[in-house]
Amino acid sequence: MGHEPPSRHPHISEENRFRRLFEYSMDAVYIGTPDGTILDVNQAWLDLFGYSRDELSSINAIDFYAHPEERAAFLQRMNETGFVRDEVRYKRKDGSIFLCQRSLVAIRDREGRTVEFQGINRDISEIRAAESALRESETMLVRSQMIGHIGSWKLELSSNRLTWSDETYRIFGIEPQSFAASYEAFLDAVHPDDRKAVDNAYSESLGNDANGYEIEHRIIRRDTGETRHVYEKCVHERSEQGKIVRSVGMVQDITERRKTEQALRESEKKFRTLFADAPVSILIHDCSTGEIIDANPTACAAYGVDSVDELRETGLWMDPPYSYDEAIAWIRKAATEGPQQFEWLNCTVRGQLFWEQVRLTPVVINDVPRIMAVSVDFTARKNAEEALVTSEERYRTLFENVMDAVCLVSPGGLLLEANQAYLDLFGYTKTDVGSINVEQQYLDPHEQTRLLEHLAYHDILVDDEVQLRRRDGTLMNCVRNVVARRDSEGTFIGAQSVIRDVTRQKQVLDELRESEERFRQLARQSRTIAWEIDASGLYTYVGPVIEDVLGYRPEELVHEAYVYDMHPESGREEFKSLMCQIMQERMTLRDFENPMLTREGGVRWFLSSAVPLLDEIGHLRGYRGWDMDITERKEAEAAISASEQRFRSLFEQSRDAIYIGSPDGTVIDVNKAWLNLFGYSREDLPSLNAIDFYANPEDRAEFLKRIAETGVVEDETRFTRKDGSEFDCSRNVVARRDEHGNVLAVQGVLRDITEQKRQRAELEHLARHDTLTGLLNRHAVMEKLSEWIGHSRRYHTELSVLILDIDHFKRINDTHGHAAGDRVLQETASLLISSTRQADFVGRYGGEEFLIILPRTDIEGAAVIAERIRARYEAAPMHVDDDTTDRVTVSLGVTQWHEDDSADSLLARVDAALYRAKEGGRNRVERAQAHSSDT
Length: 935
What we know:
Layout (H helix, E strand, L loop, with lengths): L13 H11 L3 E5 L5 E4 L1 H7 L20 H12 L1 E9 L5 E12 L5 E10 L1 H20 L6 E6 L4 E4 L1 H7 L10 H7 L2 H16 L4 E9 L6 E12 L5 E10 L1 H12 L1 H5 L8 E6 L5 E4 L1 H7 L4 H6 L10 H14 L2 E8 L5 E13 L2 E10 L1 H9 L17 E5 L5 E4 L1 H7 L18 H13 L4 E8 L5 E12 L5 E10 L13 H12 L1 E7 L4 E4 L2 H5 L4 H4 L14 H13 L4 E9 L5 E12 L5 E10 L1 H23 L3 E5 L5 E4 L1 H7 L19 H13 L1 E9 L5 E12 L5 E10 L1 H15 L9 H18 L3 E8 L2 H8 L1 H18 L5 E4 L4 E7 L3 H17 L2 E2 L5 E2 L3 E7 L6 H17 L5 E3 L8
Parallel strand pairs: 36-37
Antiparallel strand pairs: 1-2, 1-5, 3-4, 4-5, 6-7, 6-10, 8-9, 9-10, 11-12, 11-15, 13-14, 14-15, 16-17, 16-20, 18-19, 19-20, 21-22, 21-25, 23-24, 24-25, 26-27, 26-30, 28-29, 29-30, 31-33, 31-36, 32-33, 34-35
Helix pairs in contact: 25-26, 26-27
């Protein structure tokens, strides 16, 4: 609002006007010296810091700092620049800490020395708290939407129609045609003991207007009647009005996963035979430098080299995608902390990338500490996971490498040798070897003595279960294989034991009754066909799984068919030639993609591996191999290719601007809509950086911080086109991370909302302002009154209100017409704005009535302002049309707010004062009479 120029009020001095501005300012104003002496403050400052004016002489500026050491830095900045605008934590008289925005300027004498500071302080604690709460809320919303894609479902609340994915039907064991597709039908499939909890979880999430829920519970499969465990997670989708209209969720069957993971860990011994010949890469590294000491043929083949020397010469880890520092860090961590397991992106010498699951284990070879790296290629699974993150995912758990405890004891029970697994299992160290008698491991020490005495005279294999004690006294159930060790003359020199802790495995022995059955189940689940052929390629053995996969009975193929007979006819001769070459050179076959015919004439794809079988003198007897069904994976790869083509079409045809870039600002890809929006051509992209698009470059740093923390940024910002024009833009950006969580790229959708924001600002202004006068409308000025009553009650500050009515306004309308009346109302609004302070609020209260709110003003100050308005109105002729003026007067009521006042009581009192002013002859100011302090 404007203020009266000094020339209009010669009787009011500059000092008086400054004092009015100083005292009635809503911000805390402070004047002090460099040594901390307080020269003067206004009432707002006293209210903010909680002091009285009498206490100012006994306090120093350093007393207000939450961290006093910040005072010295402030003084240095003032000496250097003469101006400080920042945020600082201050301390009130009661000791409470608050965040304050301050702006101070130095006043210097003629010699340039700072003699005092003048500053304005504002409490921004609530603003910062609100901003923090908003950021936290946005983060929680994004995370709640990140739902796994195992089995999916959707429930429309309006129709109670439930939609399940195929995987969900499979999990529940229900045929789609027999399912009622409703929420009640879903509850019928839940285990009776869990039904209430599931219903409550869903109902409460709706009743509490939550974003969703998650729960683990049991179900009863309809097809088998068995009880299964599932994990469910749901988010609710809302209408534009914020009402929940549908629920979308996922369900994951976790029963088999738990059983499989536990069984794999606890029964490694029974599975070792099945995977003894499976291809596994093994490298031996130096603990400090990471140098490759040795590697097995599988590892060399994985990298595309023929020997260890050639593998060393490749300069492994020196070039992308490797990170030498990261690799060394993993090796050193394994050396100091024990076994480490992680995923690693590798590259062959031909540049082909592949993923491995790597386990690093400290070992001692020839008394030298080394690191053994055991890795399994899981590129196919990794590619499927990365390419199909939005579709249903199936996970296969890889077997962990578990080393058995092996030891050698003397005939008297002294521990002679032990591997690291044995030491780890029993809690020993290397220094204990040679000094520990293993009889202390037994509950009955004589049991070990009897065993050794028996082995001394009998060459038998002891294969049993026994309860053993660790060094710390804890007991464990173990399976052991014990054999006698004899010297060349047959003398008993000790017993060698292989021991495995099966304590946890005992809990699932009822599920693992026969290892052979487990092997068959595993083979069927993995759809892996085991086979053997002789040196001519004729089948000598075929596993029973072939009937499930290809439809042949094993007896139809054994001694009846050759391995190449299973190949499609179009490439059979080439395959036969390849097999002949492989057998002639006794090559090991690993991960060979091989099509095979089904009994019905169809084709399925397999990943084949095979090893040569040699007789005692080294002649080739044949091959043993495994064919793993990868038909679904091949189909998935084809689907991925089609999906990528569809994505590129959608990317280019989208009307929204789509941007893909790296964290360093490199532009990776954009669509045509983006080029049109920013005004660039595709040839411009290589020379551009993302920071070039920001109207305010500092916003780029804040964006990178948020995307690294949350992975998602959805906001509005201001960008610059190639021609320099700026525009407002809404953006929805997500991060693409690597397996370690590092941001590799950002992908976002942008939309120009400049016009939308302009229209929204106009609508907001129209909603709060009177269309004729431009003043606050009745609703808005009443909101301000309620706000300032709350503020005054909280900080115990003064507050007054004026109500003004134009005298004989009806006569103006009747005499000159409504257009003249509108003109008088507009000139009245201009006069009121110029006659009040910037901190005051003026609103149109009724037809010709105006309400003025005077914060931090007592009744005396309010009466002065009211009288000034009345006098200026009386002295200023009003233009009823372009050529005619008329003398118009106003009547005003004045009152001051008190602690027991509400907005209604305050307005009633000031309205009564206005009524008395009009009854008393108009053109006058009347104070309210309800409180003695108002009169």
